[in-house]
Specification:
two-stranded antiparallel ribbon, single chain, alpha+beta, 62 residues, Alpha-Beta Plaits, 29% strand
Amino acid sequence: MFRVSIDRDKCEGCGECADSCPAGILGMEDGKAAVVGDPDECMGCETCVTVCPSGAAQIEEL
């Protein structure tokens, strides 16, 4: 099982992670990326980590 999180202090608000998340867990809130879906539905694909230019997206294996 995996869980996604976003460090909003690092997030630059580009939206790349939200646009690329195949599980639809990530979205934009107040101009920054946020976990808007169930974080436990993360597939662990690391697409968000790969596309995030600021390193704000993190995947944790539980």
